[in-house]
Amino acid sequence: MIPIRKFDAIVVGAGGSGMRAALELARAELKVAVLTKVFPTRSHTVAAQGGIAAPLANSGEDNWHWHMYDTVKGSDYLGDQDAIEYMCRRAIEVVVELEHMGMPFDRLESGKIYQRPFGGHTQNYGSAKMAMRACAAADRTGHAMLHTLYQQNVRSNTQFFVEWMALDLVRDPQDGAVVGVIALEMETGELAIFQAKGTLLATGGAGRIFFSSTNAFINTGDGLGMAARAGLPLEDMEFYQFHPTGVYGAGVLITEGVRGEGGYLLNKNGERFMERYAPNAKDLASRDVVSRAMTTEIKEGRGCGPDADHVLLKLDHLGPEVINQRLPGIREIAIKFGNVDPIRDPIPVVPTVHYQMGGIPANYMGQVVAPEGAGKEAIVPGLYAAGECSCVSVHGANRLGTNSLLDLLVFGKSSGEQMMKDMRLHPAPHRALPKDAGEATRARLARLDSAASGERVADVLNDLRRTMQAHCGVFRFPDDLMKGVEKMKEISSRSQRTFIQDKSKIFNTARVEALELDNLVVTAMATIVSAEARKESRGAQARSDFPDRDDKNWMKHTLWYKEGNRLDYKPVHLRPLSVETFEPKVRTY
Ligand SMILES: Cc1cc2nc3c(=O)[nH]c(=O)nc-3n(C[C@H](O)[C@H](O)[C@H](O)COP(=O)(O)OP(=O)(O)OC[C@H]3O[C@@H](n4cnc5c(N)ncnc54)[C@H](O)[C@@H]3O)c2cc1C
Q: What separation in Å is there between the alpha carbon of 147 and the centre of ligand 1?
């Protein structure tokens, strides 16, 4: 018998989105459990560097209309315009709220929040003048934000279950409503069912499906795996953002804030090549544009170093004062991982996988939606998703820098609000758990525990990452994609035969890694199958055989289902909430 713990609400994930949602619920005195694989302030949000977007206009003119336009354009017109309007209109509110919670933002002389420019954020609907929209705490914005949210949650009596790994959703077979999750306590190896009236998935991204990634090792797409195993689709998974400036050889991120402060990229001839690719925004063009430009420079022989396989990020001209005050973490990373001190020398950089635009389909109130009958967006009762694991979709085919921390706050808050609303609207007791709750999960664990031989988890994982890196990169080629899909099918069947030598229960990280592999396989399969099927180039998807965006045939969201490895599509929400639609046009910077 698996023990049962009852809460009003369960939040899986203690990153920015999970903690913002939990805070909303706990402040309303609901009984909230937050499950997390790591200590809350070690969640990946802690690594966010550059800033949070909000049109505060502290250092120059700005407003939410311009922010909305930039976000729609940045998404290459795949973003849902109702959700984008919602996010941009609530940006000031959530950032000021965070400031009042004690977030230690950098300050201007006037005492207002310091703001810097970031890629793709412009004034006056895409003019050459950059907006100063990124609210920053030096280059440690995520660190400051996560600690602020954690402290507020502690104050509001949120209950944290640290080093608990959620494994699967529990659904009511009657109507598919989600009634909780089954989770593994890593310390003891025991299972428990967390039963709730509302369950929020906030498990972050899955950048670890690629070989070279800025993401933490815990970013294994667990929420995506849980949703897909429960029969729900994953949306727009083909769109993975490559950040232009990962440290060459290490993948550690150098924030776009460096270019926001005035740094720029050089090829082996010392040429500031972005002037050719994006005459207006130059180094602050949107990330997909800069990553492709860098890859082209390297491919055409203008890369730096003995193997001509990277470019250089120059910032010494900013001077030691700016570097030490505004970018101290970057200097440390460059010294430790790039072996250069940016006060004197440029940093060697390459595009590195960074952010997942797709995820679990959700509306802007955090409710998970999936096709049912004739409708494409029926609400899944009891299930919510926020943060990088969700696809709301505000980022469409390409996310603008600093819009993710904003999305965590806006949709973390709105999903908390919606969960409360739903509970108050239907003030019923907890639904009964299905009789076989947790059986499928137990069977997964039993297979692992009884297997005496099979595939090594590390081997399957390495092959998965190498396959994704080689077959689904910055530029995508038809043959590579097709071969990649076949390889992933093989990897998927190998993952069913994994085996762990260590069968002990107490803090068995081998078991945790084997369970994470199931989620990585789901995420990688969804990504490459969706990418192979989309016959156009848009945002982060750049195909050699279909180099142009094709709005007639492909202005639609992809939905991938684990069962049958099949695809479906649904329309983009082109109608905003209160303003006119931003009609698609050619995207130049
Ligand atoms: C290096 C770096 C720098 C960045 N800088 C910026 C920036 O400056 N501005 C910006 O807007 N965006 C930035 N981003 C993107 C942004 O930081 C992330 O998208 C965002 O922090 C993700 O937050 P999250 O709440 O969705 O998830 P995370 O912060 O990743 O948290 C996920 C949580 O889920 C938990 N979890 C996962 N699986 C399970 C499970 N099975 N059971 C229990 N718990 C689980 C984890 O323990 C963790 O608590 C950056 C990203 C990177 C990688």
A: 13
Q: Where do the domains of the chain lie, and which CATH numbers do they carry?
A: 247-350 (3.90.700.10), 439-559 (1.20.58.100)
By the 10 Å C-beta count (0-12 exposed, 13-18 middle, 19+ buried), 533 is classed as middle
**Beta strands at 178-185 and 164-171: parallel, antiparallel or unpaired:** antiparallel
Whether 589 has a pLDDT exceeding 90, the answer reads no
Is the shortest distance between the CB of 204 and ligand 1 below 6 Å? Answer: yes
- Give the active site residue among 20, 133, 140, 287: 287
Distance CA 11, CA 18 (A): 6
Distance 558 CA to ligand 1 centre (A): 23
To the query of whether residue 287 is one of the catalytic residues in this protein, the response is: yes
Quote the Cα angle for 488-493-498, to 5°. 115
For 78-221, where are the alpha helices, taking DSSP H only? Answer: 81-101, 141-155
Q: From the CA of 45, how far away is ligand 1's center (Å)?
A: 4
Q: What is the pLDDT of residues 249-301, one digit of tens each?
A: 888 999 988 999 999 999 999 999 999 999 999 999 988 899 999 999 998 99
Does residue 402 line the site of ligand 1, with CB under 6 A? yes
Q: How confident is the model at residue 237 (pLDDT cuts 50, 70, 90)?
A: very high
Among 133, 160, 405, say which to mutate for ligand 1: greatest number of ligand atoms within 8 Å of CB.
405
Above pLDDT 70, what percent of the chain?
100
Please provide the average confidence, as pLDDT, over all residues in the chain: 96
Question: How far apart are the CA of 203 and the centre of ligand 1, in A?
Answer: 7
Q: Which of 34, 153, 222, 404 to mutate to test the pocket of ligand 1 (most atoms within 8 A of CB)?
A: 404
Angle (nearest 5°) at CA 461 between 484 and 361 = 70
- Any ligand 1 atom below 6 A from CB of 215: yes
pLDDT given at position 287: 87
Check: CB of residue 276 under 8 Å from CB of residue 264.
Answer: no
Helix, strand, coil % over all residues of the chain, rounded to 5 = 40, 25, 40
CA of 307 to the centre of ligand 1 (A): 33
The answer, yes or no, to whether any atom of ligand 1 lies below 6 A from the CB of 35, is yes
Report the number of secondary-structure helices (H) and strands (E) in the chain: 16, 22
32 Cβ closer than 6 Å to some ligand 1 atom: no
Cα 89 to its chain centre, rounded Å, is 21
Q: Give the separation between CA 47 and CA 140, rounded to whole angstroms.
A: 7
pLDDT (0 to 100) of residue 250: 86
The CA dihedral of 122, 124, 128, 130, to the nearest 10 degrees, is: -30
Q: What is the pTM of this model?
A: 0.95
Ligand 1 atom with the shortest distance to the CA of 14: 49
Average pLDDT (196-201) is 97
Residue 471 three-state SS: helix
